[in-house]
Specification:
- Its main location: membrane.
- The structure is a single chain.
- The protein has one domain.
- 68% of the residues lie in helices and 2% in strands.
- It is built from 14 helices and 2 strands.
- Strands 1-2 form a two-stranded antiparallel sheet.
- The longest helix has 34 residues.
């Protein structure tokens, strides 16, 4: 017997509070970052506006339930692919080239919107439908059915992956993380997954070895120029490249290190980092609030991931579970990569810190993802009797 709940009981107040803390942290960090002489625009106000728009997106997305998203999945996927392809042919007035890349649509009154941020969410929804439909159709699991599922997931992912990789390698890595996370929980046998994982790890290790030890092979056979190789070398030894390509990383390490335990205080920064309100906003937090502030931000992400995991376990619909896994994979990779690159743990890829870095497309895409989580909680049915009673 299904139990009835009112709107207030169905609304996910915990997630709402978590996002409020992110909004406060983001706006405070951006407000402080923009006080340096490099900025003329008020990014603090813009980020507030993006959060308001993001809240509207959450409200709209939350209205639809899981069955409606299952029906809309391929339409959303098609819209995302169309927008990605249209970028190649759109005139400069609609899709301007920024910093040598044509990745954004110019929206009057709103700024530049990057369709790849929404394509990632559309891909999560579509892969979730593929996995759940596959298990409904093939109740008897065999290696053949697992291979068939992997092929379907791979072909669905490869098109947006290729389009996004052509524009932004960092975002392409996020797509791979989403794909990997969803494959891991899709029920595909480890007899298939393990060899693929080992092949990927071995290939990555081999490439890194060649880059470090014998870069001449890459120049000769793959026509990779020295600048791209220097991006790797500047990650491994930023001090030697501090006057050029390694400048941001070197300054980021200085900023975070100088923050010590409690930081220098709000607005009390001494280390100059270009564009520190976007990809390197964690460096601002580390310098101003030290280990305590950085730990708070990381802890906030842990709480978010825990809540998303709990949502995945609480829902009684596999489609919802897979959506949660896709969102968790996306957010986790973003956080690990962004914070990792500011402390030299990982190479710099230009991936923003979710909910904190300045950026309308990134924030609205993440809020779209949160809207899906709100929807799952809002439309979740509980029963007075039965094994799925909560």
């Amino acid at each position: 017997m299904e139990t009835k709940k009112n709107v207030a009981e169905k609304f996910d107040w915990t997630l709402c509070f978590i996002l409020l803390l992110f909004a406060i942290t983001s706006c405070a960090a951006i407000y402080s970052a923009q006080t340096t002489e490099q900025y003329n625009d008020n990014y603090f106000i813009r980020q507030l506006v993006f959060y308001i728009i993001g809240s509207i997106i959450v409200a709209v997305v939350m209205v639809f339930d899981n069955e409606q998203y299952r029906k809309l999945s391929w339409y959303l996927y098609g819209i995302g692919i169309f927008l990605m392809v249209f970028l190649f042919f759109a005139p400069e007035s609609i899709a301007p080239e920024i910093k040598g890349a044509k990745n954004w649509f110019k929206i009057p009154g709103l700024g530049n919107i990057q369709p790849s941020e929404f394509m990632k969410i559309f891909l999560i929804i579509t892969l979730s439908k593929l996995i759940s439909d596959h298990h409904e159709k093939f109740t008897e699991k065999t290696l053949q059915t697992d291979v068939f599922l992997l092929i379907k997931l791979g072909f669905t992912t490869i098109l947006p992956l290729g389009l996004i990789a052509h524009q932004d390698l960092g975002s392409a890595l996020v797509v791979l993380a989403i794909f990997a996370g969803m494959v891991l929980v899709s029920g595909i046998s480890w007899k298939i997954i393990f060899p693929i994982v080992m092949l990927g790890v071995s290939s990555a290790g081999a490439i890194l070895y060649v880059v470090i030890k014998v870069p001449e092979l890459l120049k000769q056979y793959l026509d990779i120029d020295q600048y791209k190789l220097n991006r790797i070398y500047s990650w491994l030894d930023p001090e030697s490249f501090q006057s050029g390509i390694g400048y941001q990383l070197y300054k980021s390490l200085q900023a975070i290190g100088s923050g010590l335990i409690t930081g220098k205080g709000f607005g009390e920064r001494a280390v100059y980092i270009p564009d520190n309100h976007t990809d390197f906003v964690f460096s601002v937090i580390g310098e101003e609030y030290g280990f305590v502030g950085a730990s708070f931000v990381i802890g906030l992400f842990f709480i978010l991931i825990y809540h998303l995991t709990k949502t995945a376990l609480d829902t009684n619909d596999p489609f919802n579970t897979y959506i949660c896994v896709g969102v968790i994979s996306m957010i986790t990779f973003h956080v690990f990569q962004n914070i990792g690159m500011t402390i030299q743990l990982l190479p710099i890829t230009g991936i923003p810190l979710p909910f904190i870095s300045y950026g309308g497309s990134s924030l609205m895409g993440n809020m779209f993802a949160m809207g899906l989580i709100f929807s799952i909680r809002y439309h979740h049915k509980t029963y007075m009797f039965g094994s799925d009673s909560k």
